[in-house]
Amino acid sequence: MAHSIFFSLALCFLVLCDGSMAQQQQQQQQPSQRRFRQQSECLIPSMSALEPNRRIEAEAGVTEYWDENHDQFDCAGVAATRHTIQPRGLLLPSFANAPRLIYIVQGSGITGAIFPGCPESFQSVQQSQQSEESRSQRFRDQHQKIRHFREGDIVALPAGVAHWCYNDGETPVVAVSVLDTSSFANQLDQNLRRFHIAGTEQYEQQQESESQRSRRQEQGRKQNIFSGFDVNTLAEAFGVSRETARKLQNEDDQRGNIVNVENGLQVVRPPRREEDEEQQQRSLNGLEETVCSSRLMENIADPTRADVYNPQGGRISSLHSQKLPVLNFIQLSAERGVLYRNALMAPHWNLNAHSVVYATRGNGRIQIVGNHGRAVFDSELREGQMVVIPQAFAVVKQAGNEGFEWVAFKTNDNAMTSPIVGKASAIRAMPEDVLMNSFRISREEARRLKYNRGQETVVFAPSSRAQGRAAA
């Protein structure tokens, strides 16, 4: 029996390894790892700051969806959701047809990601207290690894990987997800499809227009995957009674997909400090990670880990596959930006990725310019709103009087930007004579274009003129 179990586990690992090698070969043949999209899909004459258009209330929280059929999301090939989980709320297990990045806007808790073939490495032993005979009997619960999360964490989940989430703090957890429905990992159509292992969803359809409702294939109450199976088959498959099998289908359960855990969730988990030390050691030892022990999250809100920092302007932190190797597998990356009052992020463009920007605090003016030299977006982005910046479109961000903070989800594991202004920028790298003849300016003007921002990189302190406008 032991040999059979070992063989089955080894076979699962072999399948995972073969899949990983195939993924790497596919990446070499098609570096972008994204499906071919018709050029017309990204011809966007104008853009707007977007808010969720569908809201699903549950017993212990709310799930909100942005309209994935909107031109901006259709161009980027992504979908976006936002979960708000109340204290002692459990987001029930589910999986999706596309890889995703999750940013923890606020709150803390624990989460589990279920990888097929991986061992149940977390174990607990509970002793019965009913009798002398039963005291000698021990019941052991085993499950896969549980990870702590906190504000500022990015969580990466491959397509098809089931996960659950629990709020063990005193404040609501707010988590924003962007899913890459154009990924080659998604072999279905480019619609977001979320499969619930437990719980149900009840769409509030009154928030949708008739055209939006007709384009969505699944309407009304969305049940979990067990609801589609025959009860007798479920009972036989799990070796349980028909009554238990019916409970798996949640037919009479009105709690939704986020439920309240009255006495708190009792699971085996290490203290937060021990987990942080383990992750730090793993990141320093340089050993290749396996699928089962791979890190799935990294905090990008810690100011001490910023990649770009200007004491008068703000900071930028990026997360790519060199820092979190699992991103190479799901082909996504992230950026966290903080601009102080009236500060500016240098005009730039994204070389190899679309960027989905979500405002986490404050407000800022964002200008996006397309290849025809016309602004497709010139407006304020406020907390809770989202906008898509297509690949190669030029963009500039400027904070308002309250400052501006955002997280950007990018559709490449090694997303790169090219600044237009400042040190190491495109303008700085050009000869003076090229600038003079390009813009019909004097040599002195060309030098000012190149060097007036001195040693500032990416994040600029507000100029005296900007400070004057703010005071006025």
Describe the protein's architecture and organization.
This protein is an alpha+beta fold and 472 residues long. It has 11 helices and 27 strands. It has helices at residues 2-29, 71-76, 132-135, 210-215, 231-238, 242-248, 272-285, 326-330, 432-439, 443-451, 464-471, and strands at 54-58, 61-65, 78-85, 89-96, 100-106, 109-114, 122-127, 138-143, 146-149, 153-157, 162-166, 173-180, 194-196, 201-202, 221-222, 258-260, 297-299, 308-310, 314-319, 333-339, 344-350, 355-369, 375-382, 386-389, 394-410, 417-419, 459-460. The longest helix is centred in the first third of the chain and has 28 residues, at 2-29. The protein starts with a helix and ends with a helix. The relative contact order is 0.14.
Average pLDDT for all residues: 84
Structural class: alpha+beta
Head-to-tail CA distance between termini: 79 Å
Count of runs of 4 or more consecutive helical residues: 11
Bulk shape: elongated
Q: In terms of per-residue confidence, which ranges show pLDDT below 50 for 5 or more consecutive residues?
A: 1-32, 36-40, 127-133, 281-288
What radius of gyration results from the CA coordinates?
A: 25 Å
Question: How is the secondary structure organized here?
Answer:
Blueprint: H1 2-29, E1 54-58, E2 61-65, H2 71-76, E3 78-85, E4 89-96, E5 100-106, E6 109-114, E7 122-127, H3 132-135, E8 138-143, E9 146-149, E10 153-157, E11 162-166, E12 173-180, E13 194-196, E14 201-202, H4 210-215, E15 221-222, H5 231-238, H6 242-248, E16 258-260, H7 272-285, E17 297-299, E18 308-310, E19 314-319, H8 326-330, E20 333-339, E21 344-350, E22 355-369, E23 375-382, E24 386-389, E25 394-410, E26 417-419, H9 432-439, H10 443-451, E27 459-460, H11 464-471
Antiparallel strand pairs: 1-2, 2-3, 3-12, 4-11, 4-13, 4-16, 5-10, 5-12, 6-9, 6-11, 7-8, 10-17, 14-15, 18-19, 19-20, 20-25, 21-25, 21-26, 21-27, 22-23, 22-24, 22-25
